[in-house]
Every structure is written in structure tokens, then in C-alpha cells.
Inverse folding.
């Protein structure tokens, strides 16, 4: 068992990527009460499931006749894969594309007990029930046709992976820019508030120190001008942030739609705002 050519392994990978997409899209679509093309890619493929299935098949070769060991090996291997993938994606893209933080016995939100157990049971289903008919189906394809088909699918997969990676990197930069602009806006608001407080104090001083009135008025005029400049800067920053958010919502709306449960530890507020803009944009379409 599991003695295949390289192109057959590729075909298995695509099949299980597609099965994973069906499962995830169905689950998320039911929760969202509307169709969601779930996943990191635009194609109906979820690489985590394809990679997980191939890993399960490899790991369980030595223990094929021991069901409990098949469960343990599959659970352990898929759990490690899920953690490493989640960790790497968050470091690279500044976002968690799945987050188990709200579930019990989770580790940094990347994995949790229920997910690991599910991987174990899925391994048994895969090795005992699912893989045999899939194997039979792939074996029915002419080797030359199977080679061409696997290479063609690889080309589509690679092109989509490159595009989706760029899209995800852009989204990370968007969140970073939005957070930076928000910080600048808050700093400008604080400076204006401080100037207003200083103005109030100086008005009180003018009433008691008549002989310094001229000099104080001159200083007050400078402060008013400074406050006006800060107010203009605040308005400019606000408009720039709104334009940036609207423009980049359009360019990143696809990946946001495919990952409605995504979260960001560093840029949570910006991601929340971008999702809100995305929902408004979707309603206006």
C-alpha cells in the first residue's frame, strides 16, 4: 500500500485539498448563512488538508494494521503540521487565518484538543474508508494523462499560491499602515487637547495679570495658530486614513471574505475596521 508515482501523489494532494475545501466551505457557509469560498487560495483547494492527508498516509505506513496507533500517529502528525503552518503564516502575514483561542485546551490559538482529536478520527476515516476509492480512481487514469493533468493543476496551484501570498502580504501591510495612521491621529488629538487646556489657563492668567496682557495675547495668538495647524493635520490624517481603508478594502476583499474568522494579535482593531468596510462594500455592490 502507498507505493505511488510522483504524479499520483500530486493527484492525491489535489483531491484531498478539494475535499478539505468542500468540508470547510460547507461548514463556514452554514454558519455565515451564505456561500463562502473558504481558504487561503482562490481555487477550491485547501493546502492544509491536502498536506495533512499526505502526511497521514506516510506516517501510518508502519502501523497500518493497528487502528489505535493509526489514530495516534495521524493526530500527532497533523497537529504538528497545523501548529507550524499557523505559526509561520501569522509571522509572515501578521494574521491568524484560523484561531482556536476561544476553545479549551488550545496552544497559542493554533491548535486545540478538539481539533487534534478530529485529526485522529479523520486519519482513521482516510486510511480505512476514503483513500481506497480515491486510490482506485487515480489508478484508472492513463499514466500519460495523469502526468499532464497533475502538471497542469500544479501550474494553476502555483499561480494561485503566488497571487494569494501577495494578497495576504498586502493585507498585512494595510493593517500596519492603518494602525500607524490611527496612532498619529490619536497623538494629534492629544496635542490639540493639551493646547486647549493651555489656552484656558492662559485666559485665567490674563484676567489677573493685566500688565502682561499684550504679551499673553501675542502668545495666545501663536497657540491658536498652532492649534489651527494641528486641526488641519488631524483632518488631513482622518481623510487619508478613510481613503486608504476604502481603497485597500477593495484590493483585499477577496481574502477577507474567504477567511471571516481570521484574527490579528498586533493589528486587531485595524482588521476589525477593515472587515466592517468590507461588509459595507459588499452591501453596496
Amino acid at each position: 500500500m502507498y507505493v505511488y508515482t510522483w504524479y499520483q501523489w500530486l493527484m492525491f494532494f489535489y483531491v484531498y485539498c478539494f475535499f478539505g475545501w468542500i468540508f470547510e466551505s460547507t461548514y463556514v457557509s452554514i454558519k455565515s448563512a451564505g456561500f463562502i469560498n473558504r481558504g487561503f487560495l482562490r481555487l477550491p483547494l485547501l493546502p492544509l488538508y491536502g498536506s495533512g492527508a499526505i502526511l497521514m498516509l506516510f506516517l501510518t505506513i508502519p502501523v497500518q494494521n493497528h487502528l489505535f496507533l493509526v489514530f495516534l500517529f495521524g493526530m500527532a502528525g497533523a497537529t504538528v503540521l497545523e501548529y507550524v503552518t499557523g505559526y509561520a503564516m501569522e509571522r509572515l502575514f501578521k494574521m491568524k487565518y484560523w484561531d482556536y483561542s476561544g476553545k479549551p485546551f488550545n496552544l497559542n490559538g493554533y491548535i486545540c484538543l478538539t481539533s487534534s482529536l478530529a485529526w485522529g478520527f479523520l486519519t482513521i476515516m482516510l486510511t480505512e474508508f476514503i483513500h481506497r476509492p480515491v486510490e482506485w480512481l487515480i489508478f484508472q487514469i492513463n499514466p500519460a494523462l495523469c502526468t499532464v493533468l497533475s502538471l497542469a493543476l500544479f501550474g494553476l496551484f502555483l499561480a494561485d499560491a503566488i497571487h494569494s501570498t501577495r494578497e495576504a502580504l498586502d493585507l498585512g501591510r494595510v493593517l500596519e499602515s492603518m494602525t500607524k495612521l490611527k496612532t498619529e491621529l490619536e497623538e494629534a488629538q492629544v496635542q490639540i487637547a493639551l493646547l486647549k487646556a493651555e489656552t484656558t489657563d492662559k485666559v485665567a492668567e490674563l484676567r489677573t495679570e493685566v500688565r502682561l496682557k499684550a504679551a499673553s495675547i501675542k502668545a495666545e495668538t501663536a497657540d491658536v495658530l498652532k492649534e489651527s495647524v494641528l486641526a488641519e493635520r488631524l483632518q488631513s490624517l482622518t481623510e487619508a486614513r478613510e481613503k486608504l481603508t476604502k481603497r485597500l478594502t477593495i484590493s483585499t476583499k477577496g481574502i477577507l471574505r474567504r477567511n471571516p474568522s481570521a484574527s490579528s494579535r498586533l493589528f486587531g482593531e485595524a482588521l476589525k475596521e477593515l472587515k466592517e468596510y468590507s461588509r459595507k462594500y459588499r452591501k453596496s455592490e
About this structure: The first strand starts at residue 106 and ends at 107. The chain has two domains: 6-167, 169-284.
